Amino acid sequence: MPATLLSWIRHNREAITKWVIWGIIALGLIWGLFIADNGGPQPIVDGIRFGSILMLGAIGLTLTYKILNFANFAHGDILIFGAYIAFSVDGLMVDSLPQLFPILADPANDDLLRLIALFIAMISAVFGAIGFALLIDRILYRRLRRSASVVLVIASFGMALFIRALVQAVWGVATHTYSVRVTLPMYVDAFGIFQFRMTLLQLVTITTAFTLIILLHLFLRYTRTGKAMRAMSDNMDLARVSGINTEKMIRWTWGIGSGLAAVAGVFAGLNLGGLTPIQGSDILLYLFAAVILGGIGSPYGAMLGALVIGIAQTILIAPVTTISSQYKPGIAFLLLIIMLLVRPQGLLGSAGRKG
Amino acid sequence: MPLLTVEQTTAGYGEMNILNEVSVFLEEGEIVSLIGPNGAGKSTLMKTIFGLLKPRQGKITFNGRDCTSWDPDQIVKLGMCYVPQTENVFQSLTVKENMEMGAFIRKDDFSGRIAEIFNLFPDLRTFKDKKAGDLSGGQRQMVAMGRALMLDPRLLLLDEPSAGLSPKLVQMIFEKIREINAIGVSILMVEQNAKQALALSNRGYVLATGRNQIEGAGKDLLNDPEVARLYLGG
């Protein structure tokens, strides 16, 4: 009997590892929610907030990996570039909107003015980041389409340094914040046995991220372009043979990835206490951790990985008050290392396929 | 005038020429087989015709139009579709989505065409919502051929349609090729199963080391002692 059990384990090793990982995630959630002294829903809600920012950023990274076949090290800097564009537009709007619409000049409408300014700023950031990413593709990556992926990785690394320097040159190295008041208004809510606080900002961050993700899912699942993008990430040669215009799909890939990254950048600036030029490279490491955890190349894996990392960071640290919260980032990389050791293809990735 | 002509075409990768001045033609309505040993350049010729590899010399015309060095997404618009030998389905897409990708360049409603394909391959209708990667080898080959037929092409290029299939399935695939041809699609195929392919073909070409060796009617090649000695295993 033990011999058959042993061979069964050997045969199903991959599936077993996968379910053990899922089990650990579930246990972690239960522990954080019900058992840990300082736990409860609050750390989980905080984790979802950070996770949803990562989720928006991770999509672009995983899409470029799958479709263009390289790890884009400049993605974090595109994200922060978008956030800085939003910063400039935000300042411009706060100054100019009251002149255009006198009702907004009324101090009573101050919060509304700042919210509208931020909204316009975020839209501008999305278009700014998309335009910038398409320009970079046109100038740099397009020439390297047939190069080895290591060449593209190094090129993207150079591009990352360039964008960071550009951001420093244009906006300086000091911390910038958006004009909206992030702590107001405060929501206190109780759901049954769960008690947690959520600011309007947190609520907006989480709902916007999940709305965009659902829209992305519908796009990939049901539209002609979305299906063609999936087809292309599956098999680039067959997509060309089917008459799919691959260059056009590559532009869509950049557009979606960098547009979502810009939204992530603005939310990062709002939620993480301001913008600095080096934030891009900091976030990039989390994004890689999320993407690898979920299974590199899989958009749904990236979403899942981002949430797991966001939540794991808070629930594994928050209950143990003796650990400084500065160790939080360590959790992401600990998970990354464990995952690479036991299941390098990630949670939703499958072994043996390209990538 | 032939539907497809390949004249004195040379192509290859890097420094190497795989094809050396190969010439092939196909009349409308024909089934033409390319046979020959491994490394003879049969698949390379298919890729060159379809624009996946750019020829160094020579000329390729389809339906009277010079399409030498065109890109595949332009060539499909002429009415030529191609089924590669391996990785010829979108694995993570459903069977139905695979058909939709085959019709990508069509902007009108092509649900009628999907129904026609499913009539040709009734198994596919049963599996239409399954992922192509989860299907068996024979079913996958049907998905691949169905995808390529979505545009109702005049010419279908098949690269080893029977590779890796059981003898029973090989029989079935050849039967389907005959059916597809009967509805008016010309076929150019590369085959390892040379005997069966030649029995089905109007004409055949034997390639070796990237050159034309022997050409003739399918039945004649089958009975040619030279061909038999070299490629049909006696």
Structure description:
The complex is a heterodimer of chains A (355) and B (234). Chain A is mainly alpha-helical and 355 residues long. Chain A has one domain (36-342): Orthogonal Bundle (ABC transporter involved in vitamin B12 uptake, BtuC). Chain A has helices at residues 2-11, 13-35, 41-68, 75-100, 110-139, 149-171, 200-222, 224-234, 236-241, 246-271, 279-294, 299-317, 328-342, and strands spanning 186-191, 194-199. Chain A is globular, with a radius of gyration of 22 Å. Chain B has 234 residues and is α/β, with parallel strands linked by helices. Chain B is built from 10 helices and 10 strands. A 6-stranded mixed β-sheet of chain B has the order 6-7-8-3-9-10, with helices on both faces. Chain B has a 4-stranded antiparallel β-sheet with strand order 2-1-4-5, with helices on one face. In chain B, a hairpin with a 2-residue loop joins β1 (4-13) and β2 (16-26). The interface between A and B is medium-sized, with 18 and 25 residues.
